[in-house]
Design a protein that fits this description.
This protein has 14 helices and 15 strands. It is an alpha/beta fold. The chain has two domains: 140 residues, Rossmann fold (3-Layer(aba) Sandwich); 267 residues, Dihydrodipicolinate Reductase, domain 2, CATH 3.30.360.
């Protein structure tokens, strides 16, 4: 990569920018050997260029980046502009063009919106009024999730964005898609005939996708109380994983082909009945030494926001007809874990009886996305020195032990933005199809309760209609 680039971050002094974007961008600039670059921070409060440069420097030091990487990144142009009205956006446009001219940059721009959803309309309008979306090179708009708060707002946001940008220039970023183990799902499936040939309703009994967090809402209570488990996790992170697991082989490994197959999965998904979902919020721990959700600072006293969601979903297509997909996500769970559990069907005839009983084991494939990345396949073997005593053993691989260290999710995604690769980004029709699926659950106020530090409400197993009748252990 030899072209230069101007990187404009709206919300440049916020937590996301300081802890994720700036360190990732510095690593990308260094790794991709981009010869000339500029960083323009944009916010509502006034700061000098010097103050912003020091903020950038401290962010990179706190992220433990090496001196050479920090010096290289700070060697580019770093500036800051505050915006409050249309005139300020026009001045911002002039300032960017001036930087590009003075630094001989080729007018290639990444406009990154690290702003709250409430600021999206104003920011998009300001970008258009300031002419930031018009350049002699390319201009790419990066939009952080959430992509709307329901179907109606997602449609409105897409219309607003398309008023100034082609869909080919829009990068809706979900950092889960940048995780190495999520990206590896396509390789795992389509490069290994052993799995792809059995990846269907004839061989698979059920698929479970879990994203569990051991922490509570913390200092995000204000934001979280307006979103909840379905909006914050299920509609985006879990759905992204589900589409990669369930999609058909694409005609090629290009962005258009892969994203089209993901949309087909969502269009084939059956409407979710209320009986197919359990929504809940965490209460006080069993030890009584802690707060429940309603006791968290920033949570409305009569909040009806769920912190846990378990959903049974079916995909009515040729490959998956009748196979339940179980989605589960929650806060204040017993441990932090993100994993996919594929349960294969039992053999049609039990040959290995023991004391008149059949072991009844299933082959179970577990793909661990975090914190211990890797996979495990349970298979049956004969116990030594016993007459056909069957035991299950794991064939397990830890990615940390066999693969090189992977870049962070944001590094991967920012490099893809600069290179113009949209494969790991969410298309507008995918956003709307996902909201259409989960919209019926958004206004539900009938919530169960579960003690903080457990695996959810007591009746959550009623959703599991396949053997063994319970969710996998975290």
């Amino acid at each position: 990569m030899s072209e230069g680039v101007s990187f404009v971050i709206f919300g440049a002094t916020g937590h996301l920018s300081r802890t994720k974007l700036l360190p990732a961008l510095a690593n990308v600039i260094t790794a991709c050997n981009i010869p000339i670059h500029a960083l323009i921070g944009v916010g509502s409060r006034h700061r000098s260029d010097k103050e912003f440069r020091e903020l950038v420097r401290s962010s990179l030091i706190e992220a433990s980046l090496g001196t050479a990487c920090i010096d290289r990144f700070l060697g580019g142009t770093i500036a800051y502009r505050s915006v409050s009205d249309e005139a300020a956006y026009r001045e911002l446009g002039d300032a960017i063009r001036d930087v590009e001219s003075r630094q001989s940059l080729p007018s290639n721009r990444v406009l990154y919106l690290a702003v709250p959803p409430s600021q999206l309309d104003k920011t998009i309008g300001g970008i258009a009024s300031g002419g930031l979306n018009q350049s002699n090179g390319w201009t790419r708009l990066v939009v952080e999730k959430p992509f709307g708060t329901d179907l109606a707002t997602a449609e409105r946001s897409n219309q607003l964005i398309h008023g100034g940008f082609s869909e080919d220039d829009v990068y809706r970023i979900d950092h889960y898609l940048g995780k190495e183990t999520v990206r590896n799902l396509l390789v795992f499936r389509f490069a290994n005939a052993l799995f792809e040939q059995t990846w269907n309703r004839n061989h698979v009994e059920s698929i479970e996708i879990t994203v569990a967090e051991s922490a509570g809402v913390g200092d995000r209570a204000g934001y979280y109380d307006e979103s909840g488990a379905v909006r914050d996790m299920v509609q985006n992170h879990l759905t992204q994983i589900m589409t990669l697991i369930a999609m058909e082989p694409p005609v090629g490994m290009d962005a258009a082909a892969i994203r089209s197959e993901k949309v087909k999965v969502l269009k084939a998904a059956r409407s979710i009945d209320r009986s197919d979902a359990i929504l809940a919020r965490y209460g006080a721990p069993l030890s009584d030494s802690g707060d429940g959700y309603l006791d968290e600072k920033g949570v409305a006293p009569r909040s009806a926001t769920p912190t846990f969601a378990a959903i049974r979903l079916f995909i009515d297509n040729w490959r998956w007809q009748g196979v339940p997909f179980y989605l589960r996500s929650g806060k204040q769970m017993s441990k932090r874990a993100t994993k996919i559990v594929v349960r294969y069907r039992r053999p049609p005839v039990c040959l290995f009886h023991t004391s008149g009983n059949c072991p009844g084991h299933q082959n179970v494939l577990t793909l661990n996305l975090q914190p211990d990345e890797g996979f495990e396949l349970l298979i049956d073997v004969k116990q030594p020195a016993n007459d056909m005593e069957i035991a299950q053993i794991p064939l397990a691989v830890s990615y940390d032990e066999v693969l090189a260290a992977a870049p962070s999710a944001y590094e991967t995604l920012l490099a893809d933005v600069i290179e113009g690769d949209q494969t790991l980004f969410v298309r507008s029709d995918e956003v709307e199809a996902s909201w259409r699926l989960f919209d019926p659950l958004l206004d539900e106020t009938d919530l169960a309760t579960y003690p903080a530090g457990t695996d959810g409400p007591s009746d959550v197993n009623r959703l599991i209609t396949t053997h063994p009748g319970s969710w996998s252990n975290l």
